[in-house]
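Second opinion, please. Please look over this fold, written as tokens:

===
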Amino acid sequence: MESVEIEVANDGVGKYLCRLQTEPCDWLAWDWEEKVVKEQEILHIYCIKDKIRGRQEHSIYLTDGDGIVEIHIIAQNEKQEEVPSMTFFERNGIHPEHFAFSESKEGAEWKLLEGYGKTGKALKVFPTTKQFLEEEGPSITYYIFVEEQRNYQMEIWSAPSNPRKPDGKLRFGIGVNGEKRIVNSISDTYCSGEPENKEWSQGVLEQVHKSIVEIPLHRGVNEIKIYAIDAGVVLEKLIFYKKENPYLDCYLGPQESFYIR
């Protein structure tokens, strides 16, 4: 990201003077160095990308004269000319409409749904009743850049749809650097319309199906492909993270990662 907002609040009575303390740093800027905080103030910290050389770290300290809080900032400047357009950098996730390219098959394609889902946009295959054999459906491709070769958690958020028929499935395919697998966004015990079925009930309450798979990624740019199989799958968000460092769980999920336009 290119900037962050730090909330500086006063949860007590009266007011206090908040001061920013730090060593000089030519690749960071901020919009104030001291503020009288009565209720809440916002500190904006900006990254000056042209000044970053390789990987750099810097700390900023906020103090009221009594307590002190450290804000530790890590920056790394990748050579963007070597990264294709629409490449996401390792951080949080991807909104589905920001794909690198889309491929139609048999007269079917992924289309954008406006005003839908948790992020306000989603992707669904049209015609809406079309079924596909494994690996033969229309696909969408994303690029993600990661800093180290290892296994990552890939979390796919889809709409809480129900299968078209009893005992049906809501499958889609994923391809990671050419290696493909099939994912079913519901389990074999899923039973729609039954309050006793925890999976269905939770999907209704949270308004989402969450599918988690572990995938190997190499350092640099990785290709992630999602292709259609069963009708009814509506893609809402992709999230990538290290298993030992998950995102902060919240209803809307993490913010979208920085990507190359």
About this structure: The radius of gyration is 22 Å. The first strand starts at residue 3 and ends at 9. The first helix runs from residue 198 to 206. The CA atoms of residues 179 and 224 lie 10 Å apart.
